[in-house]
Amino acid sequence: MSEIKEAFDFTKRQISISDIYNTSADVVLFDGNCSELLKDIPSSSVDLVITSPPYNLGKKYEKKMSLQAYLKNQEPVIVELVRVLADTGNLCWQVGNYIENGEVFPLDIYFYEIFKRFGLKLRNRIIWRFNHGLHCTKRFSGRYEVILWFSKSDDYIFNIDPVRVPAKYPGKRHFKGPKRGQLSGNPLGKNPSDVWDVVTHDWEDGVWDIPNVKANHPEKTEHPCQFPVELVQRCVLALTQPDGVVFDPYCGVGSTIIAALQHDRKAIAAELDSNYITITRKRIKKFVDGELPLRPLGKPIHEPTGKERVVQLPLEWK
Ligand SMILES: C[S@@+](CC[C@H](N)C(=O)[O-])C[C@H]1O[C@@H](n2cnc3c(N)ncnc32)[C@H](O)[C@@H]1O
Q1: Backbone angles phi, psi at 276, to 5 degrees
Q2: Mutation test of ligand 1: which of 271, 275, 294 has the most ligand atoms closer than 8 Å to its C-beta?
Q3: pLDDT for residue 209
């Protein structure tokens, strides 16, 4: 496990929470079905939809149904999500696999077709790889999930600089050609790529680790399927501007809300289970008080210290 910091460094401030749609609230936290909340959200008013929907796994909060019935059920919500998305907006749909009688159905493949049919354009199919999970006996153990990132149009928000990760050799220079001697990489760090990985826990080497939320994760609550706040943070930073509006129709215990507040975005969320709403409220309060245990996002912008391993230039280049 990489380094865990206990609390995010956050200046105490007031957060206004509304339980119905309200444009002046910092957070809209709707206790009920997202289809109901969606009726009140104006068209083209949301900058980022990010969610991990129910996976039809038969968890406490979902009734397991056939795959086809499950997907049909999701369509009316998806139509509405596309409607509320701004023209420059983005949508991130984080899913794993649906398993029936030992057969694997990768949900992203089924969802891709639905979003495409409703006019969204895929920008990345992000593989989020982690190290903990069930040990399978009749197939290889599953150790990744997928985030489908779509935009509504070709004119979409994408800010790479706030989410750059440290390059392994920040001082590397071109060896030949017209740029000979110049730095070959971006001094702010490199693009984190479409594989969000756990190759190494060595932060000095600049490889990020986004573990899934299991028992020893500092963010773990009683919710069985939380996604880590840092996963949402990366999407919030790259895919919205400050003051943007982030919407999670399947809020769970509010991980999206926390990530939005961390970066001065407004949050809208719906959750069917009142118990999870209560936990979300407690998490927001702890966050405002600077007491919410969170894994840190890491170093969003790599600032070279001057001590990096630098490729030595041949004398004649100096
Ligand atoms: C996979 S979990 C999301 C967990 C969340 N990402 C987090 O980090 O806490 C899906 C959540 O959607 C909720 N849910 C299911 N159907 C819903 C609906 N129609 N409207 C609102 N919430 C719903 C479930 O109660 C569950 O908490």
Answers
A1: -70, -30
A2: 271
A3: 62
Domains observed in the chain: 6-317 (3.40.50.150)
What pLDDT does residue 199 have?
45
Residue 217 to residues 17, 178, 196, 200, Cα–Cα distance (Å):
27, 49, 18, 17
Measured in Å, residue 270 CA sits from the centre of ligand 1 at 8
Query: CA-to-CA distance for 131 and 141, rounded, in angstroms?
Result: 10
Amino acid residing at 276 = Y
Q: What is the rounded CA–CA span in Å between residue 267 and residue 284?
A: 11
Segments in the chain below pLDDT 70: 1-13, 57-61, 198-209, 297-318
Q: Are 220 and 294 in contact (CB under 8 A)?
A: no
DSSP alpha helix (H) spans, 168-273: 229-239, 255-262
How far are the Cα atoms of 45, 232, 315, 317 from residue 263, in angstroms, in the given order?
Answer: 19, 11, 46, 43
Exposure b/e, 154-172, CB count within 10 A at least 16 = b: eebbeeeeebbbbbeebbe
Rounded to the nearest 10 degrees, the angle between the axes of helix 107-117 and helix 67-84 is 40
79-111 pLDDT, tens digit each: 999 999 999 999 999 999 999 899 999 999 999
Residue 270 Cβ inside 6 Å of ligand 1? The answer reads yes
Q: Candidates 61, 258, 277: which one to mutate for ligand 1, based on the most atoms within 8 Å of Cβ?
A: 61
* Residue that is written with structure tokens 């990345």 in the block: 124
Task: Convert the pLDDT of each residue in 258-270 to its tens digit.
Answer: 999 999 999 999 9
